[in-house]
Amino acid sequence: MTQTAKNTGHPDNSWYADTALITAFPAFGGTQTTDIAIIGGGYTGLGAALELAQRGVSVTLLEGAQIGSGASGRNGGQIHTGQRVDPQTLVSQLGSDAARELWDMAEAAKAHLFDLINRHDIDCDLRHGLIHSWHKPRFADDDHAYADFVSQTYGYDKLSLMNREAVAVELGTDVYHGGLFDAGAGHLHPLKFALGMARTAQAAGAALYEHSRVHSYHRSGDDYDLHIGDGHRLRCRKLLICGNGYMQGLDREIDRHVVPINNFILTTEPLPDRTILPHDYAAADSRFVVNYWRRTADNRLLFGGGENYTPWFPKDIKAFVRRNLLKIYPQLDTVKVTHAWGGTLAITLSRAPFVRALSPDCLVSAGYSGQGVVLAPYFGKLLAHAALGDHHDIKLLSQLRPPAFPGGPLLRTPALIAGLSWYALRDRL
């Protein structure tokens, strides 16, 4: 049976859900008021809720399914350096000063991630180190240029280039032509991290609700009214919209710039040896539809590969992802796949996040395009700062200006499918 991409809670066959302590939060009821309301219980919303609660602000978060059950609890758990758009491109688009601020912001986001984990003792299987491997020799030039630029311009000294033989030893496969190692990157258990953030925010005083989908909102005088269904309503002075890939239909301006796509992951049974990723680094390759993988704390291979752009998941997710796995690790042909699941993330046309004030008291951050583990918790914090009057970072991010998808509501999905399918085809050429 074809599965739906709609989020109703943690997926049944997720290794993350099977290995995390799931915390239940109440559903919203009645009519309430709050200073600041947050729509979305993923990294962005939780980052904002935590920051606001720690500052003594009355804050209420509404999640339509379960806290952390969207992309924040389903992704590959990879920690990457930088913004989603490379710094050389940002220099050409925005100038050297703004590009440097955005680089520093991304480094601050990574430091913020590690600080949250350490300061609040969030057990999320954090490991350091990530290898970006080249599936075609031509991608070596891009990584050489990137490594030279961030080292010479920003003083980032955690990158080292790897030849084909070194990558083969670290990955346990000889299909790649070399790679770039980032000692400042890494990986974690994303659902454990999200739930750790939620428990921390709740302990700080944030009101968190799940199974409380916001169907619409409107301005009422100086306030916003959020309609949750069954006559329930929340009134707030300021609103933060943080639903990422699960908020279509809520706001027309967001829908024009942010589009959901689906990505899929499997985990194997525990591997019999340590020849694959012997140092527990994460790995990702240079394909447009990227393959990414890592070892889990219980010695499984967690592998993500393959996308679709429809409202439905494939009928057989295991087979859909496994065919990509075996192209890299044919030696795992007899290894059992124990879990397979999908998740919906949000992308923008330029891959730059869509962050801005929709009105003076309503802000949005979405469309992380695969970079959300690092950026989303910090961008939630920045939304909180803007809601309290400090708009500097949100104004900087709004300069990224991802363009609207062409075609309007009816034509943008077919156009998206055609465009992304073309780039996926190029991966095979």
Automatic annotation (TrEMBL):
| Domain named FAD dependent oxidoreductase: residues | 35-385
* Keywords for the protein's UniProt record, in alphabetical order: Oxidoreductase
* Keyword Endoplasmic reticulum in annotation: no
Q: Enumerate the Gene3D superfamilies for this protein.
A: D-Amino Acid Oxidase, subunit A, domain 2 (3.30.9.10), FAD/NAD(P)-binding domain (3.50.50.60)
Name the domain of life: Bacteria
Matching PANTHER family, A to Z? FAD DEPENDENT OXIDOREDUCTASE DOMAIN-CONTAINING PROTEIN (PTHR13847:SF281), SARCOSINE DEHYDROGENASE-RELATED (PTHR13847)
Name listed for the protein in its UniProt record: FAD-binding oxidoreductase
According to its UniProt entry, this protein's organism is Asticcacaulis aquaticus
